[in-house]
Amino acid sequence: MMGHQHLDTDALEELRDVMEDEFDCLIETFITDADKKLIALRAAIEAEDASEVGKVSHSFKGSCSNIGAPYLSELCKESEDKGRNQDISNIQSLYLQIEEEYLQVKQLLSQQLS
Questions:
Q1: CATH number of the domain at 9-110, please?
Q2: Beta-carbon neighbour count of residue 16 at 10 Å?
Q3: pTM of structure
Q4: What DSSP assignment string belongs to 61-82?
C-alpha cells in the first residue's frame, strides 16, 4: 500500500509564490494554530463533547486543506463527521492518527521555512 501524501508540494509552491515574504509567517501561524486545535480536539474528546469535536475538526480540516496537507485534512473530515453524527465512541484511535499525521506535516512544513 502506498503512503499518504503528507504535503501537496504544488499547493505549497503556489502559496509561496502568492505569499512571498509572508510565507514563513503563514507556516508558523498554521503550526501555532494547529497545536492549539489539537489540544482543543483532545479536550473535546476527553469531555465526550461530540458537537465540539465536530466544530474543532471542521476548523482544523479547513486549515489543513488551505496549507496543502491533504491526508491530515481527510482525517479531520472523518473526525468532523463522527462529531456531527454524535458518534465519538471510537474516536481515540482516529485522534492518534490525526496527531501522528500532524507531527509529520509539522516537521515537513518546518523544513520549508527559510
A1: 1.20.120.160
A2: 16
A3: 0.94
A4: HHHHHHHT-HHHHHHHHHHHHH
> Which stretch of DSSP H or E encloses residue 108?
helix 91-110
Q: Using an 8 Å Cβ cutoff, are 113 and 34 in contact?
A: no
pLDDT tens series, the chain, 114 aa: 347 889 999 999 999 999 999 999 999 999 999 999 999 999 999 999 999 999 999 999 999 999 999 999 999 999 999 999 999 988 999 999 999 999 999 999 999 998
**From CA 95, how far away is CA 101, in angstroms rounded?**
10
Alpha-carbon distance 114 to 27, whole Å? 11
Grid coordinates of 29? 501561524
Per-domain residue ranges of the chain? 9-110
